[in-house]
Design brief:
The chain is 64% helix and 11% strand. The protein is α+β, with helices and mostly antiparallel strands and 292 residues long. It is rod-shaped and about 145 Å long. The strands form two sheets. Strands 2-3-1-4 form a four-stranded antiparallel β-sheet. The chain has a two-stranded antiparallel sheet with strand order 5-6. A hairpin with a 2-residue loop joins strand 5 and strand 6.
């Protein structure tokens, strides 16, 4: 039995044990320390004075350790917050650089567009100047060298120049099968597609209406002389075509040129009959003979 007067000390010790046990349980519930329940169970046991003192010292040391851990966590939190702030500043700087690069790109595109507009304008003006000069030279070369001309003569010369310009945009297609109620433009498109091109064109048959065993030639008009020349360069591909091997594309000639070409064809036929041991062909307005 405790000596007289020690019952108060025992009571106070037991009450302290209960208070400490409750405090550790509360600490464990609120902060998830994970050891509070274990310590609380120890304080529920009956202890002597020196045992209670030892347990309290252990609790104090435990709390000091936890405070040290909390301080280290606090330092890590501050360091992480500082790194986040630095990353946020880097992100803002990167966004500013992106905006500046986008603006520079827009400025560069605007400058390129302006330069392209300027180049196109200069090219068109130069082309128009050359075309007008060419037209003027042709007109001058066809004018009679007299100081005065009759109005009919001027009209005739202008008409001749205009017809020559129109012919530079025209082609003749020979050997294209003819049918009643045919869709001629579609037929011509099919021929051009076989050559790997598809220009805008207008087509019409020349000569009298459909006759037995005769196929009228087709005159095709395209947008420019450049397009017409590109078609002529690829016309030779038709000879290897399964559908149009017997179709020929030629330049649209003036009546004078057609008459000269007809004479050349007659001369070519005569040479082929007279000299079959050589190869004969028309080139640059002449009949050429070469070894086979």
């Amino acid at each position: 039995m405790p000596p007289p007067g020690d019952h108060t000390l025992v009571y106070r010790g037991s009450q302290l044990q209960l208070n400490v046990a409750q405090w550790f349980r509360k600490l464990d519930n609120e902060f998830g320390v994970g050891i509070g329940n274990c310590i609380a169970s120890n304080f529920q046991k009956k202890m002597q004075k020196h045992e209670l003192a030892t347990s309290l010292e252990e609790c104090v040391q435990y709390m000091k350790d936890q405070c040290s851990h909390l301080k280290s966590y606090d330092i890590e939190v501050d360091s992480t917050a500082a790194r986040l702030q630095e990353a946020q500043r880097d992100l803002i700087d990167a966004q500013k650089r992106i905006v500046n690069l986008q603006q520079e790109l827009l400025d560069s595109k605007s400058a390129e567009v302006n330069q392209l507009k300027s180049t196109v304008t200069e090219t068109v003006e130069k082309s128009l100047k050359i075309e007008f000069q060419s037209y003027s030279d042709k007109l001058a070369s066809n004018l009679p060298k007299t100081t005065a001309m009759a109005p009919r003569t001027i009209k005739s010369v202008v008409k001749s120049v205009v017809e020559e310009e129109d012919r530079s945009r025209s082609l003749m297609i020979f050997g294209l099968a003819e049918e009643e109620d045919e869709l001629l433009s579609q037929k011509v498109d099919t021929v051009f597609e076989e050559m790997g091109i598809k220009p805008r064109q207008e087509a019409c048959r020349l000569g009298k209406t459909l006759q037995p065993r005769k196929t009228r030639p087709v005159r095709v008009t395209v947008s420019s002389a450049t397009v017409a020349n590109s078609i002529l360069l690829r016309a030779r591909e038709l000879k290897d075509s399964k559908l149009f091997s017997s179709v020929f594309v030629r330049r649209d000639r003036s009546p004078e040129d057609r008459a000269k070409h007809k004479e050349l064809v007659l001369e070519l036929r005569g040479k082929r009959e007279a000299d079959p041991m050589h190869k004969h062909f028309i080139r640059a307005g002449k009949v050429i003979t070469a070894p086979i």
